[in-house]
Amino acid sequence: MRARDIMTTPTYALAPSATLAEAAEVMSGRGFTTMPVVDADGQLLGLLSEADILRAPESPGDPDTGVVLAGRPRTAGAAMRRTGLAVTAGMEIDELARLMSEAGVRSAPVVEGRHVVGMVTFRDVLRAGRE
Predict the structure, then answer these.
(1) Which residue from 111, 78, 75 is spatially nearest to 3, judged by alpha carbons?
(2) Which segments of 1-131 are extended strands (E)?
(3) Cα three-residue angle 20-76-103, rounded to 5 degrees
(4) I need a labelling partner for 106 at 20 to 30 A (CA). Which of 7, 58, 83, 98 fits?
């Protein structure tokens, strides 16, 4: 069995301009702990996790309007990690599980080239292992 057989698709992704409040709403509403951040062509730019959102520094500004008075805006692009684990659709599940475990991640984007085609989680791997 391969990543393509267990990945979640279609994949929800964030634009780098998405605010952290918007990202948190999508993540909590869909039950995601990590989401890919992609450009307009769907190419992977980075990953944004719940922890990244919580660690992002507060910017002084008006929380009702989102206007930033100084500092960096609180966006997915500003808070995302530019490095992280991405896997190919053809990767075998045992290799996928090993890489995820070694990297200490609970989910990873599945890519073809640089385009995100799905997401795979530890839950997906565990479910596949029981089948």
Answers:
(1) 111
(2) 34-38, 44-49, 61-62, 67-68, 87-88, 107-112, 115-121
(3) 110
(4) 58
> With contact defined as beta carbons under 8 Å apart, do 91 and 118 qualify?
no
Q: In what order do the strands lie in the sheet with 87-88?
A: 87-88, 107-112, 115-121
Cβ atoms of 1 and 112 closer than 8 Å: no
Q: What is the pLDDT of residue 73?
A: 57
Phi and psi dihedrals of 26, rounded to 5?
-65, -45
Contact 13, 36 (CB under 8 A): yes
Are 18 and 75 in contact by the 8 Å Cβ rule? The answer is: yes
Q: pLDDT (tens digit, 9 = 90+) per residue, 1-36?
A: 999 999 988 788 999 999 998 999 999 988 888 899
pLDDT in tens, 72-102: 557 899 889 887 788 999 999 999 999 999 9
Q: Which two tokens stand for residue 122?
A: 């530890």
Check: CB of residue 1 under 8 Å from CB of residue 125: no
From CA 107, how far away is CA 100, in angstroms rounded?
Answer: 7
